[in-house]
Amino acid sequence: MRAATRRTLWRCIVLALSATALHAALLPSVHAQGLVALNVDAGHPHDDETEIRFARCFADAFSPPPALGRDAPAAALRDALFPWLEPGLVPTTAEAFSALLETKLVRERLSALGVRYIVVLQGGATGSVSTGEIYGIPYAGFFGSMKERHHYSLNAAVWDVGERSMRGSGRAGWSTTFGMVAFVFPLPVYSSTESQACNEIVKAVREAIGERR
Fold first, then answer.
1. d(CA 209, CA 29)
2. For the chain, what is the mean pLDDT?
3. Is the whole model's pTM more than 0.90, yes or no?
4. Domain boundaries, the chain
5. Which end of the chain, C or N, has fewer beta carbons within 10 A?
6. Could you give the 3-state DSSP secondary structure of residue 41?
């Protein structure tokens, strides 16, 4: 076997093992069952579906209540607590959310659903930068390069439903880059650090609820 082939095979093995280790690190824990992540901006015109994307990440790290399902537990929770968590009515401050958890009917419904923790997400786009340009030349093709980078920030407040108090908080930022490189034919380029941001939020949530790995 040639040296180059051996190096390629070794890199593939390392990547496979790394992916397996990352998946194992995000397996559900019995100490974090009944957790739901809720974005206060969901349903608004400026909603960027952060809740949906982070729900997938959270579902790999924690166990949402079985009554709410794994695909969209936050949406199911809104339906169960209608109208308290609807857009425009969902509490956006710690004082208001604490008052919501003190409501008897809300506590009873959360208890019946098996919700132990609610992670309230707030944030969104913080800015963007565009550089470069693509030029089209008749009968020759496209030439040049362009890049557009968007920056985001997210705050997470971890609420204990039983104690009706905030256990802790976390914050993370990430960016997504959309670009194109053209030499006769344009080729799209995309990258994102959102998965790292979700891992940071997951770590903060685990620390807040006292889970140790």
1. 12
2. 82
3. no
4. 27-208
5. N
6. coil
